Sequence to fold (152 residues):
Amino acid sequence: MARTIADTLTNYKVVGIDTSPFIYHFQGEALYSKITTDLFNAVEKGLIRAVTSVITLMEVLVKPMSEGNVKAAEEYRILLQTFPNLSLRTIDDKVAARAADLRASYRIRAPDALQLSAAIEEGAKAFVTNDERLSKVKDVPVLTLKSFLARR
Fold:
């Protein structure tokens, strides 16, 4: 059994990453810091290729912008756009159509459907989130950060 998130994800090669791991990492969320550090180190080193959508960009910018922290917002934007082995997928007609299918099939929220759809369209073989409600999606294995807490 794989012990770390990086060990698990190397089996998938391409993974989608939801917004929550980025927010936890950027904000230094103590409970998940080891897990998100392992995740993003694996991406940076090229052990896995990752994809997220522009929805992540929008969501991670909300807190620094609401606090008037333009510098942090710009740093997050640049980081997401230049991070090694991470693709930032736009929402186009293919992503939207697949998202509609995911919403119809699983009754998930639109942002979640778009995130999952963007990852699937980019060839993701797994999706990392901390939203257990997405575990009902069967189009791609959904892995929660919580599931790795017990493995440490």
Observations:
- The first strand starts at residue 14 and ends at 17.
- The helical segments are 5-9, 19-26, 33-44, 54-66, 70-82, 93-106, 110-121, 146-149.
